[in-house]
# Entry
Amino acid sequence: MQEQVQLFLRHLHNKNFSAYTLRGYEEDLSQFTDFCASRKITDVRHFSLPLVRSFLASLSVHKYQRNTLLRKIASLRSFANYLVDQNKIENNPFKLLPAPKRERLLPKFLNTEETDRLINTAANTGHFALRNKALLELIYSSGLRRSEIIGLKIADVDFFNGVVKVLGKGNKERYVPVTAAALQALRDYLGTRPHPQPTDALFLNKNNTPLTGDGLAYIFKNLAIKSNIVRKVSPHSLRHSFATHLLNNGCDLRSLQEMLGHKSLLATQVYTHVSLDKLKSVYQHAHPKNKETSL
# Structure
């Protein structure tokens, strides 16, 4: 079983899955193989529906959130598909296991005052102030994912046209506009780098090696504390803030979908719930009865 898991993970790596996604698969499948080992199940041919049901039942003690559980099911389902393709098992046990619906979680975002406070804190804190300001300005400017930020090269930023080339999910490239403030912050930061080359990573850590996802999360955690923002703040918080603030200021869903790199418009529509204030404002100015009462 363990050998096949390693071959499967290598297969995913060869298909250029992101490091973040690979880590999730590895964690989920390691948990599954540990479960199998505890029951002395080592032969992949024993991968069956009863085994899957027993494993999923064992997860109840962890009280995972619904979407975390769904991710683990998806990891196992992909592994089962791989085993079928490799003729290691005859039938995919997940064909008889209905997939529960994903819970649509509302995005957690910062308001404009909190966003400004976070970026201002980054700009005035410590030896890495210029880097951190550029980092936050770019994420908020363009709504980039954590994996997209750490994967950027200097050459990916087009300072002349004001766009950044992003390699998103599924290795799909897209171009996203960048604000003038973010471009200036990037110029200021790159001006401190000795002999930066186009193929160098855009953001470096204290060891002058490419910034990692964990490093990025650490930066956000510390900046949130220094900004006196009591709730959890992550790179995705700024991505959510980018999307929410654009919608509140009149951006259409299709354009936002393109900028966020969403495959489906449904993924973008989750942000519409936070645009109620904008909706009310438009309604009050557009409805004839409201116009009459204001005369």
